Amino acid sequence: MSELIIRNVHQALPEALYRLAAGHGMVTRDTRNGKVLMADGPMLTCYMKPTERVVFWEERDANPFFHLMESLWMLGGRNDVEWISRYNSQFSQFSDDGSTFHGAYGHRWTEHFRATGSLQSWSGRIGDDNRKDGILDQLKTIAELLTHDPNDRRCVLTMWDPTVDLGMQGRDFPCNTHAYFGVSACGCLDMTVCNRSNDVVWGCYGANAVHFSMLQEYLALCIGIPVGRYFQFSNNWHLYLENHEALMDALSPYAVMPPSARTCPYTRGQVEPFPLMSKGVEVWTEDLFMFLEEGEQATGYRDPFFRKVAMPMARAWSAFKSSSSPDACRDAVKILQHDCHATDWAVAAISWLEKRADWRLK
């Protein structure tokens, strides 16, 4: 097994691409989605600062609006196509019925699994209130278990359901199958995510780093302890050559540059993460559901994250999508410059928008 111990996902991407380009321990395989370059065995990535979750590489051109909004959609337990497709119209192609996503992580965290057998065996135990009507809210249960006993070793978050996934046909099955949570020796919440098949660019060092670091931060805040390390175990770690060979060639040289020549806005002090939650779990959760249901039309958000991060990002996206004119990009940038207090998301979003303003001018 190979391992990559790194500060954050922005630094991880070129390091991963360098290892793939170097070819040591890598093999080429044909898959149903095209030829891949893959590690001949699992890859373990350890993020020391997982809340530094934004990728800034212009060559990667990651959509920060989609990454952030999909993470909130997940924490809201949603599986509907309509809401998240506002931020990525192509995402709907992964739905089998055009209405819901079969393997939506957030829905599996809080809504999918049902208790079997007699619930009486749980009477009076931690997690009992989270099994009402036979539905298991795994996130609430894990938070309560680790609050009650920081030494608990049974806090497993399950996303893979063999009764509806194993051997079945469809477009959307969980790639990330399980996550383990535990309190480290220094009193922080560590998380290990197990992934059966991990695309290096879109998944491992893209969307997954955002989704699961936000989940980790959310649970840490629910428990009342700091965020620790984020371990990503990728059983099949691969790169689609047809899609990303040029990106590998462009970014892999950064991995061997001296530290002074590398570009990381976090280490240079240009940006920093904004706290996910400031007013407590109940207030934040109420704001989350209001945001998912009403969005820009709602007033009265109480947690600063929604007033100063989520709402400005949503408003900027709406401005950008309002027309095909370059002015739409400029209006969106102004919203972010004036209202978005998460410097990492703002910088990444402005760069992404300005690139599209250039395209619209041509």
3D architecture notes:
By secondary structure, the protein is an alpha/beta fold. 41% of the residues lie in helices and 15% in strands. It contains 11 helices and 10 strands. It has a 6-stranded mixed β-sheet with strand order 1-4-9-7-6-5. Strands 2-3-10-8 form a 4-stranded mixed β-sheet. A hairpin with a 5-residue loop joins strand 6 (176-183) and strand 7. Helix 2 packs across helix 6 (200-223). It starts with a strand and ends with a helix.
Helix/strand layout:
Blueprint: E1 2-6, H1 9-22, E2 26-31, E3 34-39, E4 43-47, H2 64-75, H3 81-85, H4 105-110, H5 138-148, E5 156-158, E6 176-183, E7 189-195, E8 198-199, H6 200-223, E9 227-234, E10 237-240, H7 241-251, H8 281-294, H9 304-321, H10 326-339, H11 343-361
Parallel strand pairs: 1-4, 7-9, 8-10
Antiparallel strand pairs: 2-3, 3-10, 4-9, 5-6, 6-7
